[in-house]
Amino acid sequence: MDHIQISDMIREQMERLDKAQRHLFKQATKKAETERLYRMALAQEIFKLRSEGYPVALIADMSRGSTAEEKFERDLAESHFRATVEVIDTIKVNISALQSMLRFYE
Known about the structure:
Blueprint: H1 3-51, H2 56-66, H3 68-105
Helix pairs in contact: 1-2, 1-3
């Protein structure tokens, strides 16, 4: 492997990094949006159960059960966000390794 091939590989990794960073922004937006939707649904459910006269001790568990789908979407968005961060970290390590190789060949 020569320095031209390594330089090409670095450029490819930089392009991947750029795409991953743009994807991270989208994931962060989705994460925040799903958190907002979950909190709104939870608040509405708590209000509904209170107005129906359910005991306060049961409202928290009942409302969480009723908003399980929103919580799932929130948790899934969080997982995707964290996975994207991990991909970015991996790409950075690859770039660093390639840069070290390039310095060795120069």
